[in-house]
Design brief:
Elements: E1 4-12, H1 16-23, H2 26-29, E2 35-44, E3 47-57, E4 60-72, E5 76-83, E6 86-96, E7 101-111, H3 116-140
Antiparallel strand pairs: 1-7, 2-3, 3-4, 4-5, 5-6, 6-7
Length: 143
């Protein structure tokens, strides 16, 4: 089964430096794609390097890990996501637009394991329906 991707652009009046600082807070990531909570946060100095997360999709709880796999300080961050059923990435690219910051968020998911292909259609549909709203909510919380 091929990967599925979702993209959405949102805007905040917050400065890029403020948005970058907020992206280093694991609680901020709970606003993307319905993460219920984070734990076991790891850092290299002030920079986020990873965490565990829980999420509920279509009434089913999932646990996984997120690890920062690429970063350009102040400009963009990539989280690699792994669970028993899904692997993927969340990429956030930042840009200034003169009066604030633009967030371009892309999520890519693919099924893995025995149950991945079975639950993937349900999970990807739920993420697709809520993705624009979750990115807008993320941008709104940056200020």
């Amino acid at each position: 089964m091929p990967p599925t991707s979702f993209k959405h652009r949102a805007r905040t009046e917050a400065a890029m430096s403020r948005v970058w600082d907020r992206l280093q807070d694991p609680a901020t990531w709970a606003l993307v794609a319905g993460v219920d909570g984070t734990s076991d946060h790891t850092f290299a100095g002030p920079d986020l390097t990873g965490f565990r997360f829980t999420t509920t999709i279509a009434g089913v709880p999932y646990r996984g890990t997120a690890r920062v796999t690429d970063t350009t300080s102040g400009e963009g961050i990539t989280l690699s996501i792994r669970s028993n059923e899904l692997h993927g990435q969340i990429v956030v690219a930042l840009g200034e637009d003169g009066t604030g910051t633009q967030l371009d968020v892309t999520m890519v998911m693919r099924p893995v394991g025995l149950l991945g292909p079975i639950v993937f259609p349900i999970v990807s549909r739920a993420v697709e329906e809520g993705f624009p709203e979750s990115v807008e909510r993320l941008a709104a919380q940056m200020g």
